[in-house]
Amino acid sequence: MVLHLQKEAEVKPYESMTLNELKEAEDEFDEDDMKAVEKYRQQRLQEWKSLQKRQKYGELREISGDQYIKEVTNAPKNVWVIIHLYRSSIPMCVLVNQHLNLLARKFPETKFVKAIVNSCIQNYHDRCLPTIFVYKNGQIKGRLIGVTECGGANLKLEELEWKLAESGAIKTDLEENPKKDIINMMISSIRSTSVHDDTNSTGSNTDETKCFLSRMF
């Protein structure tokens, strides 16, 4: 549907106009135009509100321990919250914060926050850092504790994205685990070294392999 303006050169489809442009052009509308425009205006307004709701966050925010309950545990209903407990003196924590900052922009519907660990938990061991908790509706839905669980010292952005997606906190467009090839290579290598073992030792090595892999990935 188009506006009934006097000059055809000035005709514009409603879909090409912003809400402000629609308001400014109201004097040029006839009665039919006004009905159509009002309907379209409401549609655009709802789309805008929906977009604002989905893109409510979009950044990695710093909070203190005093804000933990309000910002994390009591976050709005059905909002996923990812919190990173860190120390700035630990390189892995710095790397995780860099990745989370980028992921917060990519997934603005998820709330990303970080907090210096001492402000939240006293006497927390460095070996447990970085620590990432995933919350929804006041419940912990996932956790990554320590360098190994977070993905290792050479953690890539896509690897952290995959781990967080596994908890449900974000909807990734990655089709498979970025570390899949590495895992398969390690399994193949471990199997080849045990090919000459007897049946009993093979069973033992298999159990050790599973344990090792569960710790590494």
UniProtKB/TrEMBL annotation:
It comes from the Eukaryota. It holds the Pfam family Phosducin. GO terms for cellular component: cytoplasm. GO terms for biological process: protein folding. Gene3D superfamilies: Glutaredoxin. Residues 6-170 form the Phosducin domain. Belongs to the phosducin family. This is Phosducin-like protein 2 isoform X2. It comes from Alligator sinensis (Chinese alligator). The lineage of its organism: Eukaryota, Metazoa, Chordata, Craniata, Vertebrata. The gene is PDCL2.
